[in-house]
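re: that chain from earlier
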Amino acid sequence: MTASQPTHRAILMPSGRQGDVAHGTTVLEAARQLGVEIESICGGNQTCGKCLISPEFGQFAKHGITSNSDHITPPDATETAYAHKHHLDLNQVRLSCSACILGDLLIHVPDTSLARRQVVRKEASNLQIELSPAVRLVYVRVVPAELGLPGDWERIQQAVQQQHGLTHLTIDPLLLPHLQKTLRQGNWSITLTIHRNRQVIRYEAGYSETLYGLAVDIGSTTIAAHLCNLLTGEVVATESTMNPQVRYGEDLMSRVSYGMMNPNGVEKMHRAVIKALNQLITQAEESAGLAPHSVCDVVLVGNSVMHHILLNVDPVELGGAPFALVTQQALDLKARDLSLTAASSGAMVHILPCIAGHVGADNVAVLLAEQSLLDDKNTLIVDIGTNAEILFGNRDVVLSASSPTGPAFEGAQIEHGQRAAPGAIERIRIDRTTGEVRYKVIGDTRWNNELDEGMTLSPTGICGSGIIEVVAEMFLAGMIDAGGLFNVATSERFPAVRPVGRTAELLLESADKTATGKDIVVTQQDIRNIQLAKAALYAGVKLLMDRHDIRTVDRIKLAGAFGSYIDPYYAMVLGLIPDCQHDQVSAVGNAAGDGARIALLNYEQRLGIQDSVLKVEYVETAVEPGFQAHFVAAMGLPHASDAFPHLADVLPAPTEAEDAEGGRNRRRDRRSRRTNEA
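^ sequence. v structure.
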């Protein structure tokens, strides 16, 4: 591109890749330039329809752009004809090979248009749950209609009372129109689906044994849905997708900002998540071989911002102190009231309670899934995402907090970062003597140095688990110091460390061996962004420990999709988590999804967790005076002052300058504690 040629900022979501592209560049070509591979079987001839994208319009404060409808070319005759033939709404989607960029533009690239699709790792774990769902099946034989007898519904009520002992039963009024026809189709027998022994929410002619529910974890980045047989507890299908709200902002405060700055912004985000939920219900039913609208009970969990947007409530109050929730209570709604039309017409939705402004129903679900761990040991449970949810305590006290880690662990704000997808570097080792870098990519079990001559793994970037490992490995190899700064002098003995101005960068793979045709490197700014993210989490943990003067952590559980793929050893070397005995650090999978499943399958647990929430001590990190001091100290690798005795054999010895600084930090901490105690 020439110096005189105008350029525009293109931002591709949910990958977060962005950069300046020349005026008139097609979205397809812009995506390729920025390292996002959009499918295009026809080679950009507007015939295959694989390259669909959705331009998003509005003000995006985090990115510092305004994306307007006139920043993209209108459809030409060929695109219009293709859209007409395939019933596409060009107000919603465009062919990326046809649409050209004329100004700053934010573009959503759906998973279906990607050549390398996002890996969403939120599988259901193997739980032992006592079955006692909120809905049950009741089969009754009903007295046939005769002159002088009560109406069909009244005779059904009588039959249920006589045969099952249930009284004062009601029926969802929207079910009445087809009741008589169904009763006669079953030859005066009918199977009722009853919610909490109070209301009929579904019926089927004759005898039936189909009862299904859905447990959903609405994460900031991903949504995972588990379809369960409510008669057996079996997970019959699990479906996941990227949260479509990512296009409006990668982190929670960006979405709050989008809702504030754009007319109907909250409603747009609400409609996006509801559409995704309907699609997941349909996909799960299809995967399990069920008829449409089989789901009759749904449990939803999510952080407080997701909770509000799900309910079409403006989350603006969560954007600043006092971070007021619209409600903390658990909610029971009709699915249709949320426009969840893919569920059965009378289906119910339960939303777990929230703890506080920044600790939502997902944290409550984690507590529900892991509360058996709360014994005499000091247990830390961390669900790591764009917003880290933290639980800490024992049988005597449970504390909770939320820390704004941001999207760095998911590849955003990292030069060659990306979300987990085939081709992303997820494991890294650095030789301490030669500095040689070895890596594995998602989709291949081999290390790159195990390949035959001439072969390559063709990496596309580096995902969260790889980012954590590479920073920790660089520290252990002496490439960076405890402050996270490059030791530029190491470039003399480590060829992979390349000087860049007054700092350096680490070469992971050269351009000739990558899928993007560009060097994949780790920069000084990448390291700084990881330090900022991990420091926010660690500082949140320290505040909880301070509240009851607890100085040790006996057990650590890493929850969430990301937590499941972090190597605990490297998480500790990085200082993402406090020091702990290595065999007491483990992953617990999608604990929020597990908690949602427990609430779906056991109504008593659903009620019990509401009482447990009232006993949780909440710490608001945003207004705690000690947060900043803890945050600054936690920027160090693994920490500026906290001891890590379980890493004593692997951590490099501090330099004289670092040792002196550590002494000053420790003295400062002691003075701070004495002041606080006074």
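The CA atoms of residues 171 and 200 lie 5 Å apart.
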